[in-house]
Specification:
Order of helices and strands: HHHHH
Oligomer: single chain
Distance between the termini: 47 Å
Number of strands: 0
Radius of gyration: 16 Å
């Protein structure tokens, strides 16, 4: 089990790596192996989410970072052969970042229950 500091470090590394997606590898952006490493950090973050180790604020931060990742799906899929990677690692579909090549391009929406107010 990861410590809170490990999890926060993983989130920061994920965020830092996302910045590298703005450039091509020739411009100092991420290479394919660095993208796969970033996905591995995202896996660790998902493990922490599923274990209930993240605060709601941290979960929303990760969701915001995930939206950035989705915006770079085309660039990622040009550099990384995700179907081949999935063929070897067989990730769960809940780990959607491994399936960027199959995802629609609409923004992710968080499922938040509607709040109702009682009128007395």
């Amino acid at each position: 089990m990861s410590t809170p500091n490990d999890i926060l470090r993983d989130i920061q590394i994920y965020a830092d790596n996302l910045q590298g997606l703005a450039w091509t590898p020739d411009e100092g952006g991420l290479e394919a192996d660095e993208i796969l490493s970033m996905f591995t950090y995202r896996d660790a973050i998902q493990d922490a989410i599923e274990a209930g180790q993240l605060s709601p604020v941290d979960i929303f931060h990760v969701a915001w970072l995930d939206e950035i990742l989705r915006r770079y799906a085309s660039a990622i899929t040009r550099q990384v052969d995700l179907p081949a990677i999935r063929g070897h690692s067989n990730p769960s579909v809940i780990r959607w970042w491994w399936f960027l090549d199959e995802m629609p391009r609409e923004p992710l929406r968080l499922a938040v229950p509607e709040l109702t107010t009682a009128v007395h």
